[in-house]
Amino acid sequence: MKRRLSFRASIIIMLLGLLLFILYLYFFVGFRDILEILRKIDPLEYSIYYSLTIMAILLSIIFYAMTWHDILKTLSLKLSLKRAILYSWVGNFVDLVLPLETISGELTRLYLIQRDIKGDLGRIVASLVYHRIISISTTLFALAASSIYLIIAYRIQLGITIFLLSVLACTIATIILILYLSFNRKSAERIAHGIIKVASFLIKDEKRLESLKDRSMRELSVFYDASIVLGKNPWMLAKPFFYSYLSWFSQFIIYLLVFYALGVPCIIYYIPQMIVVFSITLAVQTIPVGFPVGLVELVMTYLYNILLKTSPAMNGLATSLIRVVTFWFQILVGFIIIQWMGLRHAVESGSFMNRERTLE
Which structural domain range is residue 29 located in? Predict the structure, then answer.
């Protein structure tokens, strides 16, 4: 019931956020200006560039999954690339639908992969933790480089500088916290003991509680063994970092392609500004409390209005089309994958039961 309420609340927040952004476009940008831009667009050119954004988001997810898949291989965990892609997409779906749930995507992937790899919980968690570290680090490096360039090369407002530094600080704090818990075993054990104490109020069976405690400590030991392996051999993470940057670049291309589709070829001269907007958009969705729908779009449009020389109508329309691909398309495909996986499981279960009945 709690999960259903959380999911329903997230859907309501998404719809309210979308309504908020639509109202912003109506009152502060103007639908007439947006329609005027749409009238001037070359349909063929728009179709070509916008169709490329779909290919780009697919490539981004594939490289994102390859990052995780390579970490799994490094830790001697066998999972097919196909399943890594499916689980990554489902994890992204959950993260997008539940933006306030912090690590909901990782927990989803943990649940899914446990059905394929049993008895290796500690190493699986290690793979997810390092995947999160690599993903956030990729965003951090790009955001830091582009922000420094903007601050030095342009006389941007003090408020923008403070906002950039705040996002950088939150991103850095997230990485430091994850790394601290990854290498400080005593702190992690204290947290685990705290969780078990809370569980003791719900679980009255002493044997079950003791079993939970023993398993937690055992899996923590496996997790830190895996962390030591990766910590002593950081070169093993070179390929995952490479895949992560390919994923980052594939998604960044979407931002440029949308402006090209809208007839703004000069956007190529604003790559540093585009990187800032793109990196901030990723950062505000991956920090511990991600921004919900509506607020992300408002931040994107606001930054475009300040950093680019394009009109507010163009910026609002571009933001909408970008989010259709990077947000709504991912949700649609993720939902289809979830339904397909559930249907396939039901079919396989039904076939098994039919075979059992035939044998009887």
Answer: 2-346
Residue 118: inside a domain: yes
pTM of the model: 0.80
Residue 360 belongs to some domain of the structure: no
What residues in the chain have per-residue pLDDT under 50?
Answer: 1-5, 101, 289, 343, 346-360
Asked if the structure places residue 60 within a domain, the reply is: yes
Q: Judge whether 8 lies within some domain.
A: yes
| Cβ neighbours for 334, distance < 8 A, ≥ 6 positions apart | 89, 90, 92, 93, 94, 96
Do 325 and 54 contact (CB within 8 A), yes or no?
Answer: yes
- Overall number of domains in the chain: 1
pLDDT at 67: 95
The predicted-structure confidence for 314-336, as pLDDT tens digits, reads as follows 999 999 999 999 988 998 998 88
What pLDDT is recorded for position 246? 96
Q: Give the C-alpha distances (Å, rounded to integers) separating 22 from 50, 252, 265.
A: 21, 24, 26
